[in-house]
Amino acid sequence: DNGDENSYYNETPGGNLNLFLQYKNTTGTAEYNMLWPDDEVTKGTMTETVINETTHIVELSFTPLYQFRSAPGDGTWGTATNTTDDLYSWNFKIEVTTSSGDVTWVKDEFGVYRYCELSISSGVSASALPGHRASTSLGALTITYKVNAPYKLNVTTNETLERVGGGDSISRNYINVTGGDITGEDSLNDGVAYIKGSETSYHDIHNDGTQESINDVQYHCDIPFGTLSGVYSSKLYYTLSLKTS
């Protein structure tokens, strides 16, 4: 319900904010159709138990995938039946139309917990002379992640890149990051750069697909004059965090 209860059902074929499962039997042969979405949910099986001529029990199963929108609720759960009165929940409506045109329906809600997953393809490297900029190659790094809520992705590093064998170091003040949601460059002089989202805002949830990837992130080091030649290294730490409401 996206935090409000002005609920509409299947108004448009949405992504992972809307699903439409259909049981259809107009010919004597039952069908189970998933009209939408197409890749955020796996359609399961249908079972139909005939109790008598006027009563059937129909079960339609489905499996939410990694980016199926989280719905943590509002901390309470109402006890009223046949209503949608809990914020931040998935609302559902089961509607049955008979061959004679009679319609009956029931409404309720369910929740989905938060999920995230992050993988980094490899480390990165670059080289240049003192007084010049060393930049990692575009496309050398792929960040793959799965999220089911608004999110932010940041990178941090140690205060200095240390020379292998000792004798010198380069401050992270000389390192800048480009790519992702970053406009221009973001310096690591404060210890953190936001690749997706920002310190005060979250990147919007993705409305389709089962995972996302970024391959335009680059690191740039402006090597100070007088820096000793050699190999300098530091660790990069990536953090993927989700909005909790």
Describe the structure.
There is one protein chain. The chain has no helices and 19 strands. The two termini are 12 Å apart. It has strands spanning 20-24, 31-36, 41-52, 55-64, 90-97, 103-110, 116-120, 133-135, 143-147, 151-157, 160-163, 169-171, 175-178, 186-187, 192-196, 212-214, 218-222, 232-233, 236-242. The chain has a 4-stranded antiparallel β-sheet with strand order 8-17-13-14, with no helix packed on it. The protein is an all-beta fold. The protein has 2 domains: 20-110, no CATH class; 116-242, Immunoglobulin-like (Sandwich). The chain is elongated, with a radius of gyration of 26 Å. The mean pLDDT is 91. 0% of the residues lie in helices and 42% in strands.
Topology:
Blueprint: E1 20-24, E2 31-36, E3 41-52, E4 55-64, E5 90-97, E6 103-110, E7 116-120, E8 133-135, E9 143-147, E10 151-157, E11 160-163, E12 169-171, E13 175-178, E14 186-187, E15 192-196, E16 212-214, E17 218-222, E18 232-233, E19 236-242
Antiparallel strand pairs: 1-2, 3-4, 5-6, 7-9, 8-17, 9-16, 10-15, 10-19, 11-12, 11-18, 13-14, 13-17
